[in-house]
Amino acid sequence: MTVREINFDGLIGPSHNYAGLSLGNLASSRNAGAISHPRAAALQGIEKMRGNIRLGLAQGLFLPQWRPDGSWLAMLGTDIANADPHIRAAAMSASSMWAANAATVSPATDTADGRTHLTVANLVTMAHRSHEWPQTLMQLRLAFSDTRAFAVHPPIPAPFGDEGAANHMRLSERHDLPGVEVFVYGQSGGPFPARQHIEASKAVARIHELDPARTLFVQQSEAAIAAGAFHNDVVAVANERVLFTHEQAFADKDAFYAALRHALPGVEIVEVPASAVSLSDAIRSYLFNAQLVTLPDGAMALILPSEARTVPAVWNWLEQMIAGNGPIRQLHPVDVRQSMANGGGPACLRLRVVADPKDIDPRFLVDETKLDEIGRIVEAYWPEAIAPDDLADTRLIARIEQSWLTLVDHLRLSGDLLP
After folding, report:
1. pTM value?
2. pLDDT single digits (tens) 289-298
3. Which position among 10, 92, 288, 368 has the lowest Cβ density within 10 Å, counted as fewest Cβ atoms?
4. Cα–Cα distance between 84 and 79 in angstroms, integer?
5. How many angstroms separate the CA atoms of 158 and 140, rounded?
6. Catalytic residue among 37, 131, 231, 246
7. Which domains, ranges and CATH numbers included, belong to the chain?
């Protein structure tokens, strides 16, 4: 068995738009009403995946969801033509592209039954995301259908908010060895809601049958949430034995660090001090919403948004870091501007799964040839631009639906995913 980390990226869908639906996500609010570019957005995401493959990383793909979500609208007693504008925008949202919110994943080495467990996130805090989970669950059950290797669970029930891997970290000496799982939850106390509830985190840990001695529940700092860190992955990221974090990410960092060092004695904590990089600069640049990955030669690299270069304090600190002898040795900036403008960086776009690729449905794994084919479909079918007022245009809706049908048919998934 060859177990490795596979990053599953969400392909940015043809309905990608800037409706500003996500309270607490400063980029989403700042760009509300702007014209989006779905075709460029999807091609940027494809190029990021292509870059990861060229670095020697395994790459998977989740498909956009069917939009507009007519089933959800019907439950509200309306349809896309008659829905109130904010409901219409929620039904058209392409936010499932942020695969870090698809599920929480515990590898087989961490679970009592020796299977990889995935629990789909309920995303109940935000209306535009709360209706994603049925289609996400459908894709997860297809991609990870081998019940000898995987257990795919439905969402934690409301009202306990669960935002998936964006509030979950795993540390281990190597991906294929038992790890320490860290669930980060929030407590409301500022202008924005805390989206991850401790009750949901504890429920996921129980369902995944994790070892309590290697499972930590850590509170995110109210300062981070108030500054716009709507998920933990905006202020911290982990990979194997390394935790890369902002000084102000956690409510009680000293207790967390002590517990982590006890559970994983070889852990390396790379902390960025607030005196060098403020929370505001960290969130504006999405410094921590990077993919921290282990390359085939064993070196660690940060795949981070190109915006990190534009914030002097951030880029200066990064250059000093890789000039030293710490565990993170390379920086790879990527252009995901369309996603960033809606509040999601490289780490938001991917879900990490540690598994044997042969156990996964190959339709959800990609190489450069497959990405080329998907790219040609995007170039031919995805809308070039969408303004908020376009969301009621029947011609646009027809184009979005045809784009999805063409992609799903090409990937031989139309018999399994048709709405």
Report:
1. 0.95
2. 999 999 999 9
3. 368
4. 9
5. 20
6. 231
7. 4-417 (3.75.10.20)
